[in-house]
Amino acid sequence: MFSCMLSMDISLMNLPFTDKKIFICPSRLDFGKKKSELDLQIFPMELMVGITIMSGKEWDNFCGIIQLGKEMNVLKRIIWIVLFLVVVILIVFVFNLRSIEYCSKQILSQNIKEFTTLWQPQGRVRSFEATYRDEDLRLARLVLGSSPKHVRNLYGIPLRTKNLTAQSPNNADYTLYCTYWIYPDFEVGFENSAEKTQPKPKDIGHIFVITVKSKKFHSFRGIKVGDPISRVMERYGVPSKNIYDDFGSIFYEEELCYIKFGQSKGKVSEIELGENAD
Were both Cys, which of 50, 108, 142, 229 would link to 3 (CB 3.0–4.6 Å)? Predict the structure, then answer.
């Protein structure tokens, strides 16, 4: 290796190594292009490091290393750009997800407000049939006939499930498939059916019964677990019929649905809202 400072008066043409290539290496990488002739690039004095004399093969190897370095720099830039785009996409995704969640909460809060609006009796209630409204199909913020997806969106995954199979009471050629989702404060049942010659449906069907055993929820007419039975009479009128079983339940029905109040020691012990069989 031969090196010198620019302050020295060197005539490159007088160097004895005319069959060699001369390369001037600055402190900042700007190596120029490979040339077949003797070539000297002039740089400012503060950038000059020295003069290195290389053979052709050494020069080729050196240029290959420099080219590899340049390619690595390009690859690094590409990687950084890709990472930047990934971060931007993640930020946009999270923002949109939170926006959707916020909108869902707003819609849910409106539904909850609608579902928890209490019915106020106007004078003496004669009977459930005479005062029935569509809102009577609601209990625990759920509506008879709703899908499993609706329940899952409101309450998430149930604590456990149970399945029952029975013959349809209205058609002996059909089998009923009932699936129950049990939550801490209530239980919801889904129903689907199929001919006995057909396989069990993949879809568990729609809500056909809702049972509440907690004070957390009340019926559309404002009855909740723990209320006196006398209040049930005030809000629902004379029962459609009494079911004298172990629970002494009070039963009200209309063409589309029924509502049953279990009682214990003169107070409501559970509320069951269900579809009437066709």
Answer: 50
